[in-house]
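ZP: hey, is the PBG complex queued? I don't see it on the tracker
AM: it wasn't, my bad. submitting now with these inputs:
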Amino acid sequence: MFPAQRPRRLRRTPAIRRLVAETSLSPSDFVAPLFVAEGLSEPKPILSLPGHFQHTLSSLHDEVKALASAGVSGVILFGVPETKDEFGSAAWDPKGVAQVALRSLRDSFGDDIVLMADLCLDEYTSHGHCGVLRTDGTVDNDATLELYARVAVAQAEAGAAVVAPSGMMDGQVAAIRSALDEASYDETIILAYAAKYASGLYGPFREAVGVEIEGGGDRKAYQQDSRNRREALREARADVEQGADIVMVKPAMTYLDIVSDLRRELDVPLCAYHVSGEYAMVKAADANGWIDGTAVAIEQLTAVRRAGADFVLTYFARELAEELSR
Ligand code: PBG
């Protein structure tokens, strides 16, 4: 009989397909990005991220509760402050919006869900860059590290189990690790945005946090160039050497080769960030009836797992967790 190999035998029924599936996708693989804003009296919808809001403290609690009961493993919090300054000082102020929110989530949820804090300055600086500026307008790497160290300690103090530096400054993981250890937060986990590319897919996020880069600038002087693959490994290895506990690739779909490389070369937990633009594209096409958004979202996030990521940060977390546990 020809052919001897008949792969279709293993596709015949849903039960057989489930039996031989090489990859799984479940709510525990998800971390949900959440936005909490200062000075709101009710949650404010983010138009470019349908289904997402700038939260008040109270709506943030409701959302985290729903995520936890849907089996989502973690949340990563972004603060939207009322006032900004040139250094982004609200980022390390114990009364800053992110710290206030972390403290209250910690009180309500304890260790039931993993509380992560995005660690960066761009939401807090008046110029919108991820670090402090020199007089010529460029980002001063080492001066920024000192500020990241303060933010890390403030976030750990407020109850973050994980801090996630996303600014792409050289040496940021080492600076944060030593500041945390000195302040006796040696249990605080560092999830490093290790390979973060300068991407056109962050547009909706910048609307979500109200960040505009002064003078129509960009982040190409510190985020990675999408033409580069080997460089990602160099970045990630450096982060692991500096003490990163978990590394991330961002965005996800356009960098699955990077996920696959890092999975093969490193033995730390690995995740990918399915970013705002990736979510928005699926939602927009779905709203037009051009694709089945849920099916495409599952397909995309499965691809991230198949490429080698242990978990994924995704705006689909709640929706898909509820869908997958149906
Ligand atoms: C920087 C940061 C950004 C995102 C996460 N952290 C924006 C940027 O680098 O411009 C983007 C996430 C997304 O698009 O979903 N603090």
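AM: back. The chain has one domain: 24-324.
ZP: great, adding it to the tracker
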